[in-house]
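Blinded run. Sample ID left blank on purpose so nobody reads anything into the name before looking at the predicted structure. Input follows.
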Amino acid sequence: MSGAEATEGSLLAQALGAVALSFIVALLLAIAANALLFFGSAVVVLERFARSSKRFAHVLLMTALWAALLGFLGTDEETVEGLGMRWPGMLQAWALFAGIAFAIVALAQALVALVLRFVPPRALAYTAIVVLGLAFALYAGSLGRLGYVAFPVALAAGIALALRSRRRRAGARAAGVDEMLATLLAGALATGIPIAVLLDGSRPDLGEFGAYAGIAFAALVALGLAPLAAAGFLGARGSAEWFIARRYMFAKRRQTFISVITGICVAGVAAGVWLIITVLSVMNGFENVWREEIIGNRAHLTVFDGRGAPIERYEQVIRDILATPDVTGASPYLDAEGMIRGPGGEIVGVRVRGIDPQRVTQVSDLQADLMFGSEGALAHLGLEPGADGEPAPGILLGSQLALTANVGPGDAIVVISPFGGPPTPLGPGPRLKRFRVAGIFQTSFFQYDEVFTYVDLEAARDFRKAGDVIDGVEVRTTDFYRSRRVAEDIQKRLGFPYFAKDWKEFFPAFFQALKTERVMMFVLLTMIMVVAAFAIVVTLIMMIMEKSSDIAILKTMGATDATIERIFAIEGTLIGLLGTVAGVIAGIAVTTRLPWVQTQIEVITGIDVLPATIYQFGTLPWELDPGQIAIVVAIAMVLALGATLLPSRHGAKLDPAEALRAE
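Blinded prediction complete.
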């Protein structure tokens, strides 16, 4: 291939990559705009349920239930420690956060009740969609990309035009709530276009303001409106609307097909919830496994001189560190770069770390990582004779490094330092030092086993030609979730120039990649619930078409539009609620039984789906996160509630004369 062809291919690849990235971002923004429409529709439905809430006992029950559920968010130790609070224990943390949540939910409900009393339903619906649209427009416009703003506007405008066309074909003059919501959303989103045009580049501060505004509104809905709506929904049991909705949902005889479609909707919502819970739990498990392995091979935090200089008089520094609350161990280290030369002349680059054999077990799992036959190696890092009878300091090698160098315990190896040797015509030559392989260790990280070696501090100083100094101190705490706070306490105690860095700061890209993968997987799997939401729309519309004569008779008997709307809103809510509950139960059940599921798959297929020799563990790890489950449940119910608005409005606007003409 010529240079010109290679250049053209590179430019084409870059152009396609840019197009693909722009398409993905635009698609995500369009999904977000569609989510705003669903959320706004859900707010309308919740508002109608909330206005029907009459019994204080139901409101109090839902407030307590909301507070109890929100209390589980405080049972995550990392979250509690991240707030700067000391971990009080699981039950105490739940009780504390549940009490705080009860007060917040009660206050939010009082505020929402005040708004519902003085603001008409339609004005509240329009205000909600405008606020959401403006918040999103501010965020999207702050990115400084016109396409990112125009695509959601076009989507919302297209939905509004489709609803308007349907209204005109039906001969109606006044626009319905659904059409007005879509129109207002398109107008609110369009305010982001001049922002994107006028901005020269991105403005993160504007984006943060828009994001915070949207989060504040969503929090008010979740904490204030949703409990009131749940109380109203609970109070609807035994009413005529509830009876009719339940009968329509489980139709018989001629409407068996609709019942089947309803079951498919419930199964679709359940499948989406189930898959998201299971997948996110497995990803949480993998993150915890890797985190435990990283923490096992490294201390919780490391203290070093911020100027990059070696630490002198380190024994006093170690004493000060050990005097810090929540510190359980501290061990000095000294690093050096080098290469090893095995018996056969193999040359491999390594990192030589000098350690204190007595203290290192307090801050890492190195003792537990020693392989069979090397259990007592830490006690033999001093000067001892090797297999050839020559005395030499001991060295610990990773399993992959030992395999590459073709050495084992007792063998002699030469460690080469690229600098500091005798002078040569070409400059300083390399420095050589002979070591004895004291033992082999194996961790779950190939990179550690391939590169790291351990010697005692005296041997490292001799190899590096350093004095009685160290590079830093590794520290272990009572709980690695507290490592950041303990690091700050150590910095205050030691003062300048000492600096402390915890384990999360050593691998920021790795843990950020795990979080990004989790978010993308969550977004992709949420599409299953979106499809189920559209299926709910179709099911309710089919139900309305089938029951048009029933609706006409109800309206001639005095049923109001609000009554008809509540019937189908209750039905859609029941579909979403049944699917969500089934999905949560299935997700928790399958997640907690993953080892059994994996065993059955391996028995049926005869394939080891997770070889321990490759992944270091033979079964899928998992961890259920109450916060993630709550988010999944909230999204499923928002989609289900939002899907009921259009069909319920369509049924309420049905003309009895037209519906009964063909009867």
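Unblinding after everyone has recorded impressions. The chain has a mean pLDDT of 80.
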